[in-house]
Amino acid sequence: MHLFVLLGYALLAKTSAADYVLEDNYAPESFFSGFSFFTGADPTHGYVTYVDQGTAQSQGLVNTNNGQVHMGVDSTNVASGSGRLSVRITSNKSYNHGLFILDAGHMPGGICGTWPAFWMVGPDWPNQGEIDILEGVNDNANNAVTLHTSDGCSIREDGTFTGTLGTTNCYVNAPGQSPNVGCAIESQDTRSYGSGFNSIGGGVMATEWTSSAISVWFFPRGTIPADITNGAPEPRNWGQPVARFQGACDIDSHFKNQQIVFDTTFCGDWAGSVWGTSAHCSSLASNCQDYVQNNPRAFADAYWTINSLKTYRATGASIATSQNAITGEVKGKNNTLPLLSAPLAKGGGLPEREPAHRLELI
């Protein structure tokens, strides 16, 4: 009898174990020690000057006050030179698989001229892939989740996600798609990006990367699962994600050594090229650069507020159990306004890095 009781307790402990365990906690008080500041020319040809940490701090662009991470842009001066002052940071650590959970209270999006992103990228782009988790341009209202890869990776509409599938070929030079577009899934929730996101105090973006799929969930403020809040996330219990990328793609061969990136650029290959397609933005100035250069106060709200950023590693059971959410009834899809254009790769045209033990030019 005692043997059965012990076996029962052991089985209960096994089945109730968390899917993931904490790997890294980028806590606000030490947040920037885990990142490097990129100061090179913007690979996406934006009207921006990325500054180092010292300059960012002295200019008031970054701080960790009140238990939060703040990353903003210059909203005081008329811009000159290569463009408006901003920051782009890259994690010193790289990852292969895992669960990445960002709790953000505010983001820079929804402002004409801006192109902010929270994303991941491998050092050998595009061969090691790019995962754009939270991204958009100008006055977009919906988040675009996008992958960018080398040849041989495409995804399918299979009823396992709630977003709207745009392009299906993740290859940056895919035939029939514009260069650097990749494969994109758009959120149908206008709270997922920009002013809608900020009006509710943001929320949580959770990205699960396994050998079989890359999945992204968005939980608006007030709907964040208790297992995330309690530090024991279990994606198998979250229902369908906004985006799930799987299909004719060997995930492990196309995504490796991913580093975490935050940036806010202006204009450039995407925001600048679609300036004229927004009636609101194009009414403000004849072109994106002119507006960004001469209207500093327009960017007072172009900042990130990060409450927490944590990465988790799988316990072993999580890869199988989290796939339970794949099956089930397909949720009804809403009719949402499409993106003004397909998202473009952030990693496109990355400058070559000098040999070094710290990955700084990503």
Topology:
Layout: H1 2-15, E1 20-25, E2 35-37, E3 48-50, H2 53-58, E4 62-63, E5 69-71, E6 84-86, E7 88-91, E8 98-106, E9 114-121, E10 130-135, E11 144-148, E12 154-155, E13 164-165, E14 183-186, H3 194-199, E15 203-209, E16 214-220, H4 226-229, E17 243-245, E18 247-248, H5 251-254, E19 259-266, H6 268-272, H7 279-282, H8 288-294, E20 304-314, H9 318-321
Folded structure, characterized:
The strands form four sheets. Strands 1, 4, 5, 8, 15, 16, 17 and 20 form an eight-stranded antiparallel β-sheet that branches. An eight-stranded antiparallel β-sheet has the order 2-7-19-9-10-11-14-13. Strands 3-6 form a two-stranded parallel sheet. The longest helix has 14 residues, at 2-15. The chain is α+β, with helices and mostly antiparallel strands. The termini are far apart. A hairpin with an 8-residue loop joins strand 9 (114-121) and strand 10. It is built from nine helices and 20 strands.
Short description:
15% of the residues lie in helices and 27% in strands.
Provide the descriptors you would attach to this structure in a database record.
8-stranded antiparallel sheet; alpha+beta; 362 residues; disordered N terminus
Number of helices: 9
pLDDT averaged over residues: 87
The helix-and-strand class reads: alpha+beta
Please write the string of helix (H) and strand (E) elements.
Answer: HEEEHEEEEEEEEEEEHEEHEEHEHHHEH
